[in-house]
Design goal:
The structure is a single chain. 23% of the residues lie in helices and 30% in strands. By secondary structure, it is of the alpha+beta class. The strands form three sheets. Strands 6, 7, 8, 9, 10, 11, 14, 15, 16 and 17 form a ten-stranded mixed β-sheet that branches. The chain contains eight helices and 17 strands.
Length: 315
């Protein structure tokens, strides 16, 4: 349990004693939860400038907390608006999307258009919406999905679930599969793309990723599921988990994803819009792993709007 001591009349520096539920958590991730409504950029700014301290010492973003630590949080002004009340319709959408729950995990089939978390102009992501619906639960994001990607998203309800699954993800010991529609006709039905990816942040905060020898090793396995005129439905299995990995690897081989606004083909996207595709065709269909002697295997079917679009392609 956290003991909060407030200095300066409750409006200034806060000292928090870290409880067991945050033991081992990165301080940047802890601050994202503790400073609700505060932009991500501000969280990293107060870390970078040394205003966040653990037991009196400056904390780096990757510094891990331990139970009993005293965390110093400086005064942070939250802009008017900020948190506000989570929209009831969005809360219902994520609550209705729950596909699995036990004492360690809560899993949803994330709807397209809902971010995994708030920030960068997004007031409420899936994690904030679920916390609003379940204020008594301690929920943490285990991994992320792009706002324009639907499908399996896992949240942790326990510290052991969070750290255990994140360790498996770091060790590439988790099966993560996606369904995606590639523009054009790949030469083979089964192939892999093993190309390093380099991430950069553009002016304005937009993230862009490209194949670059200076990047991190990245591996995606592709396998054909079904053929359509001018496109192929593919299953993409991650060998690594880099930002925008499937999208950039697909672009690199000359077969970008249908409807991708950032790495896609404008002419093809225009043609697909005419057939009813109003989003990027990328869906996290399955996630599987073994933890503490138990096998977890979560799956989410292709959303109705993507099924309807495929019917239009056939017709």
């Amino acid at each position: 349990m956290q003991t909060v001591t407030s200095l300066d009349g409750g409006q200034g520096v806060r000292l928090l004693e870290i409880g067991p539920e945050r033991d081992g958590q990165r301080v940047d991730n802890a601050l994202m939860t503790l400073l609700k409504g505060v932009p991500k950029s501000l969280v990293y700014r107060i870390l970078r400038t040394g205003q966040v301290r653990i037991n009196g010492k400056r904390a780096k973003p990757e510094t891990r907390l331990a139970a009993g630590d005293m965390l110093r949080i400086p005064p942070v002004r939250v802009a008017e608006r900020e948190e506000g009340v989570a929209p009831a319709g969005m809360v219902k959408a994520v609550v209705d999307a729950v596909i699995f729950e036990d004492k360690h995990f809560l899993v949803i089939d994330k709807p397209v258009g809902i971010a995994a978390h708030g920030g960068s102009g997004v007031s409420h992501g899936a994690i904030e919406l679920l916390r609003a619906a379940r204020p008594k639960d301690h929920l943490e994001l285990v991994h992320r999905l792009d706002r324009d990607t639907s499908g399996v998203l896992v949240l942790a309800k326990s510290r052991s679930g969070l750290t255990g699954l994140q360790a498996l993800i770091r060790d590439n010991a988790v099966i993560k599969q996606y369904l995606c529609l590639m523009v054009g006709t790949p030469r083979r039905a089964k192939f892999d793309v093993n190309e390093p990816l380099l991430k950069s942040v553009m002016h304005g905060g937009e993230r862009m990723v490209r194949v670059d020898d200076a990047g991190k090793p990245s591996l995606t396995f592709f396998q054909e599921v079904e053929q359509y005129k001018g496109s192929r439905l593919m299953q993409a299995t991650l060998g690594t988990g880099r930002t925008h990995q499937i999208r950039v690897h697909a672009q690199y081989i000359g077969h970008p994803l249908a409807g991708d606004p950032k790495y896609g083909d404008e002419e093809a996207n225009k043609r697909f819009r005419g057939l009813g595709l109003k989003r990027m065709f990328l869906h996290a269909s399955r996630m599987s792993f073994d933890l503490d002697g138990r096998n977890y295997d979560f799956s989410a079917p292709l959303p109705d709007e993507l099924k309807t679009f495929l019917d239009n392609l056939r017709g």
